[in-house]
Amino acid sequence: MTRKVFTNSRERWRQHNVNTAFAELRKLIPTHPPEKKLSKNEILRLAMRYINFLVQLLEAQGGGGGGGGGGGGGVQPSGQSPAALLSFLRGNMESLQAARPWALASDTEAPSPSSSCDSSEAW
Asked: Where residue 1 falls among pLDDT bands split at 50, 70, 90?
C-alpha cells in the first residue's frame, strides 16, 4: 500500500511539472485571443510553427544581421551571433521534421494569418 501511495505521489508531481512546462510554453506563443485555451497537442504544434516562422523571418532578413541599427532591440543568448542562432534553429527544425514522419506537410510550411488550424495564430 505504501508503494502505491508513493507511486501516485510521484506521478502527480511529474504531471504537475509537465503541466507547468506547458503553461510556460503557452505564454510564449502568440494567439488571438491571447487567453484562448489550447490542448497540449495544439501548444506543441503552434510552438513548432512559430519557431519555423521565426527562422524564416531571420532568413528573410539576411540571417538577422545588419537590419536593426545599433540599439540591440532583439533578444539573443549572450555570445550568440544572429547567424549562429539561425543555424542552430534551422538544424533543430530539420532534425524535428526528420524525426516525425507522421507530421502533415502543413505543419512545416510558413504560417500565415489565413493558414491556421483553428484561427488561433496571431502571426
From this structure: confident
Residue-level pLDDT at 120: 41
Residue 121: strand pairing partners: 31
Identify whether the C-beta of residue 110 lies closer than 8 Å to the C-beta of residue 56. yes
What was the pLDDT predicted at 96? Answer: 63
Q: Between 13 and 102, where is the model more confident? A: 13
Burial degree of 90 (CB within 10 A; 0-12, 13-18, 19+): middle
Interhelix angle 82-99/40-60, nearest 10 degrees:
140
Q: Which residues have CB under 8 Å from 17's CB, separation 6+?
A: none
Q: Alpha-carbon distance 13 to 39, whole Å?
A: 20
Residues shown for the chain: 123
SS3 7: helix
DSSP state of 121: B
Q: Which of 80, 108, 105 is nearest to 94 (CA)?
A: 108
Global confidence as pTM: 0.54
